[in-house]
Amino acid sequence: MPVDLSINYPAASSLINRRQLIGLTGELLKKCGVAEYTVSLHLGNDEEIRSLNRTYRQKDSATNVLSFPFGEGADSSLASLPVKELGDIVISLDTARRESVEYCQTFQHRLNWLIIHGLLHLLGYDHERSRKDEKIMQAMELDLLAFLQTYRRTPMPHLAINVDHVATIRQARGTIEPDPVTAAALCELAGASGIVVHLREDRRHIQDRDVLLLRQTIKTRLNLEMGANREIIQFALGLQPDMVTLVPEKREELTTEGGLDVVSQKKKIGQTVKKMRSANIPVSIFIDPDFEQIHAAGDIGATFIEIHTGKYCDAASDTARDQEYQLIAAAAEEANRIGLRVNAGHGLNYQNTAPIAALPTIDELSIGHAIISRAVFTGIDQAVREMLEIIRNAQF
Ligand code: PXP
Predict the structure, then answer these.
(1) Domains within the chain, CATH numbers bracketed
(2) What's the 262 CA to ligand 1 centre distance in angstroms?
(3) Probe target for ligand 1 pocket from 166, 196, 205, with the most ligand atoms within 8 Å of CB
(4) Are 157 and 365 in contact (CB under 8 A)?
């Protein structure tokens, strides 16, 4: 194995994914033309790195990353190394965490940068040698970061608005108002980039008529949320929405609870994805921020995943929320890395959306309940504009 990863950090399991780290470090070795060499990557704490810094560099302080080349390290000398080993990279996760906050970066982004920095040192680059060397190394770092991150190209995530709850109010009386089709038009006028509706098997809110009219009237993009059941699949194939989002659906639930378990239903969901793709309908799969689910979604040909933000939104403490946030950030990075595009949603509101919107890996936010609830008091136009303002201001 080209990457020998060791970790000595208690909170590591909630911060990092071994498979992802080994995968991306391996990709970096390939990109740098040293795929046949091995590298040791050790993730520890401040105390550990401080002791190494003191012993080997006579500096009695913690630092973010240290590199220990096996040979001289210079590119030209690699060929003369007796074994195909580049050396060791040691990273302090304590410092990486602090720096991610200080530089307003996701933890994963910071970690990627530190690995790249350490690897370039092993390859003989040295920013401390001269101003010219510093520039060369910085340019390489940017190149390699861009290679790892195929982020969205728009400056802010799109806002897609779910208008199901307008239909919920209508269905409470079984009349013709308020009309979700009118709501969708007003959302678009206020700046929404897409409209989402969930056509449930029990038709508790959105009706077939709504979706058919929306298909004819909306000017942005129609995202049809649906369970993978035969009747709805046929409906979707006839409708030709701009995309579908596959969600788990239980009759007794109030709203979608939890992401779809793609791992255990790979065959069934894979068949649905295939049907949609053969009709040129891109598929998103609503999943928890879980690496196994992400890889399974990638394996069966999804174009997007939508990361379930419910646990982040419902977290009972700041620590729990921060942990959920890091999971979402890492999941979105990983999905991007394997070529999936990433949406996010569920439970997002005017208080908790900004950090999710700030993630450069997220293409689109899908928000319903909070915007429709605010619209009851402020009108839809203002409710949409206020959310757009939060998303716009959330950028790094
Ligand atoms: N994304 C998915 C897959 C959903 O099922 C829902 C709820 O319908 C949402 C996003 C929007 O969630 P909320 O209404 O909590 O904003």
Answers:
(1) 3-150 (3.40.390.30), 158-392 (3.20.20.70)
(2) 18
(3) 196
(4) yes
